[in-house]
């Protein structure tokens, strides 16, 4: 394989599947491919790392102890970067972390709408009756006029809010700063007003990043504050939710159901009670995976690689202390 003279050394972390634009990447950088097992040998001395396999805990233990051997740039093929917020990376002013913000917004919003409809219309129950060849007419719920609280006001949360408003739902947001007049959420709640919003919401949709501030933010007290008969939808990160407390609130019937695409441990252990609970939809972290998504992820990285080589500002620079991209650092 030939490489451009003097090209930066790039390590691409993968799990068997390479980016679809691998040849274009190789023309811009001296590229080596590493599995999680190979990463400790190949990461030291690299100029940049492309975490094409992004749901991984392998980067932290492979990170070189000598800062001089650490890469200057890490790009993650995902919106969430929580596995990469380890001290050596976060504390280094010389390491830039970028993510794939913008790729998943519309796909996840559509998925959330599908989940809300599936819960309201009890599609899982219909499929189970079909499997048993049972004819069971029954009423279902409308979603028009119902209230959704979207917890997480980044681009994915905004896309979800717009999608749910489009089908006639009343939408509010939950975020770090309370405000009125938001173009997508109307009202954004925090603190004391959040408890009131939880008590009024028919659906609570989680789309927040996982950071030290949001870890287990949906705990037993938050679940108890939710409206009786409400439903929880999580397309953010599994660590946002105390799953044991959620299972208890579902088992006692206080909550009507949940649609969960992300979990504290993935794959979800077979012993988890969430698999078999009535009114619960389990999906394997696929809300954003639609036709062409890998190409979109790879193209975003390729654009950033060109920027890196040319010394231009990178897209989606993560604030490593906060764990997400500030609006001013997103670029397009």
Automatic annotation (TrEMBL):
Which residues does the UniProt record annotate as the domain D-isomer specific 2-hydroxyacid dehydrogenase NAD-binding? 113-287
Return the InterPro entries for the record.
D-isomer_DH_CS (IPR029753), D-isomer_DH_NAD-bd (IPR006140), NAD(P)-bd_dom_sf (IPR036291)
What are the entry keywords? NAD, Oxidoreductase
Can the keyword NAD be found in this entry's annotation?
A: yes
Report a single Gene Ontology molecular function.
oxidoreductase activity, acting on the CH-OH group of donors, NAD or NADP as acceptor
Pfam families linked: 2-Hacid_dh_C (PF02826)
Give the protein's recorded name: D-2-hydroxyacid dehydrogenase
Q: Which species does the entry assign this protein to?
A: Streptomyces spongiae
């Amino acid at each position: 394989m030939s490489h451009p003279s003097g090209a930066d050394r790039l390590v691409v972390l993968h799990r068997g599947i390479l980016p679809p634009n691998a040849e274009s990447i190789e023309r811009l950088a001296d590229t080596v491919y590493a599995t999680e097992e190979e990463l400790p040998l190949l990461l030291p001395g690299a100029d940049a790392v492309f975490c094409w396999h992004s749901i991984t805990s392998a980067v932290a233990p492979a990170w070189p102890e000598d800062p001089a051997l650490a890469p200057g740039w890490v790009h993650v093929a995902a919106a969430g970067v929580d596995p990469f917020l380890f001290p050596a990376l976060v504390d280094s002013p010389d390491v830039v972390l970028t993510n794939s913000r913008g790729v998943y917004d519309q796909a996840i919003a559509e998925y959330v709408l599908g989940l809300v409809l599936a819960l309201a219309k009890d599609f899982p129950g219909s499929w189970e009756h079909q499997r048993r060849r049972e004819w069971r007419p029954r009423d279902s719920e409308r979603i028009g006029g119902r209230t959704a609280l979207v917890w997480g006001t980044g681009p994915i949360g905004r896309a979800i809010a717009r999608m749910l408003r489009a089908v006639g739902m009343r939408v509010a947001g939950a975020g770090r700063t309370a405000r009125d007049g938001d173009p997508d959420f109307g009202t954004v709640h925090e603190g004391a007003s959040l408890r009131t919003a939880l008590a009024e919401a028919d659906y609570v949709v989680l789309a927040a990043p996982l950071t030290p501030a949001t870890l287990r933010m949906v705990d037993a007290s938050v679940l108890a504050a939710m409206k009786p008969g409400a439903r929880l939808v999580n397309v953010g990160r599994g660590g946002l939710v105390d799953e044991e407390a959620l299972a208890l609130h579902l088992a006692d019937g206080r909550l009507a159901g949940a649609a969960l695409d992300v979990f504290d441990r993935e794959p979800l252990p077979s012993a988890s009670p969430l698999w078999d609970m009535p009114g619960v939809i389990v999906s394997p972290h696929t809300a954003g995976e639609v036709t062409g998504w890998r190409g979109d992820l790879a193209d975003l990285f390729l654009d950033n690689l060109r920027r890196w080589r040319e010394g231009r500002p990178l897209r989606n620079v993560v604030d490593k202390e906060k764990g997400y991209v500030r609006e001013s650092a997103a670029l397009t």
